[in-house]
Amino acid sequence: MKKTLTRKHTDTPQNRRIIPLVHPVLGKEEKNIVAKIIDSGIIASGSYVETFETQFARYCGAAHGIAVSNGTTALHAALLACSVKPGDKVLTTPFSFIATANSILHCGAIPVFADIDPATYNLSPADAERVLRREKNIKAIMVVHLYGLPADMDAFTKLSKKHGCALIEDCAQAHGAQWRKRTVGSIGDAAAFSFYATKNATTGEGGVVLTNDNAIAARVRQIINHGRDGHATHTILGFNYRLTNIAAGIGIAQIKQLPRWTQKRRANARFLTNQLKGISTLITPVEPPNTTPAYHQYTVRVPAGVRDAFMTHLHSRGIGCGVYYATPIHQQPLYAGLGYKAGICPVAEQAAREVVSLPVHPLLTARDLRAIVAAVNEFFK
Ligand SMILES: Cc1ncc(COP(=O)(O)O)c(C=O)c1O
């Protein structure tokens, strides 16, 4: 059954309508399923977790899905299952949420950063290759499909084979995005999804690891359940990274709607790009060949000198907006201890000064979209 997309606008103290940057879509179906699970009394692990895993893996075209407590634990479990050990190096992007690189630190491994592509904001295959040649023994490459735009999976699959590293996809922002018509999360050795409240599908907090590899799947299952193997013995040190039945129930309701929400995000993005592409000082998102993005964020680029004023203007017109990410990971104080500093990834550093995300979520109305365009045009006219 189709769910009508409606939302309550947030009221400001002046009682003015605000178009929020992100907006989870939760309705009757989620409420009913949660009520059913509570009535059943089975609120920790249970059959809804299994159904959620199977349905999400099928939706993405992966052989195995393992539900976990959040996207960060999904990344951590995926890395461990791909045999990343203390002291190993993992190549990744500095332009992502900090959890991407922190999951590498959680393994006792060392994040090694390559720069991003200035048009896609994703890890640059050319710079990744430069770093892979310079650094010896990189154990894994972790790509992020940032803002829902697939990274160049042909190039990274080739690089991972050539340099003998595992390829892990951080799909936290990319549910349903496709590379050459293959859904992301089904291409690398393992993939991690987040189902946090603001993601394209949510379970409140939650995550999923996907893989096509039976051995990796078995190791993830063990890692997330205190190292317990199929014979109820504990052979490795694991964690409690399990998802609850309640959260999985919400996830089942969410992924049913996901294809439609993704279509709506794409249509919203298309409208915005058509309307905004004429502004010479604003750069709209690209859709490179082979990509079908999921538009977790619709991110434009403006000159660094006007970004604050632009955002203040949008807020004054009731348009939510945000910056993802104002500080690249290698410039975070936590990473100073690893010897990283400004200047090592100049493309990411410049992007961090210029990007702004505008609302693109599926609850936007035609009126909302016109209001966003009008506010942006008004600033640049
Ligand atoms: C790119 C990326 N990686 C990892 C994560 C971590 O996910 P979670 O917040 O569910 O732990 C997030 C989201 O928060 C993310 O956006």
List its traits.
381 residues; alpha/beta; Aspartate Aminotransferase, domain 2; Aspartate Aminotransferase, domain 1; 3-stranded antiparallel beta sheet; 14 strands; 14% strand; binds pyridoxal-5'-phosphate
Description:
The N and C termini lie far apart (44 Å). Strand 8 and strand 9 (182-183) form a beta hairpin. The protein has helices at residues 28-40, 47-60, 71-81, 99-106, 125-134, 153-162, 214-223, 245-276, 304-316, 333-336, 346-354, 366-380, and strands at 10-11, 17-18, 64-68, 89-92, 110-113, 138-144, 166-170, 178-179, 182-183, 190-194, 207-211, 291-292, 298-301, 355-358. It has 2 domains: 28-252, 3-Layer(aba) Sandwich (Aspartate Aminotransferase, domain 2), CATH 3.40.640.10; 259-380, Aspartate Aminotransferase, domain 1 (Alpha-Beta Complex), CATH 3.90.1150.10. The chain is of the alpha/beta class. The protein is globular and about 70 Å long. It contains 12 helices and 14 strands. Helix 1 runs antiparallel to helix 8 (245-276) and helix 2 (47-60) runs parallel beside helix 8. The strands form 4 sheets. Strands 3-11-10-7-6-4-5 form a 7-stranded mixed sheet, with helices on both faces. Residues 70-72, 96-97, 99-100, 144, 170, 172-173, 194, 196, 207 line the site of pyridoxal-5'-phosphate.
Topology:
Elements: E1 10-11, E2 17-18, H1 28-40, H2 47-60, E3 64-68, H3 71-81, E4 89-92, H4 99-106, E5 110-113, H5 125-134, E6 138-144, H6 153-162, E7 166-170, E8 178-179, E9 182-183, E10 190-194, E11 207-211, H7 214-223, H8 245-276, E12 291-292, E13 298-301, H9 304-316, H10 333-336, H11 346-354, E14 355-358, H12 366-380
Parallel strand pairs: 4-5, 4-6, 6-7, 7-10
Antiparallel strand pairs: 1-2, 3-11, 8-9, 8-12, 10-11, 13-14
The protein binds pyridoxal-5'-phosphate (PLP).
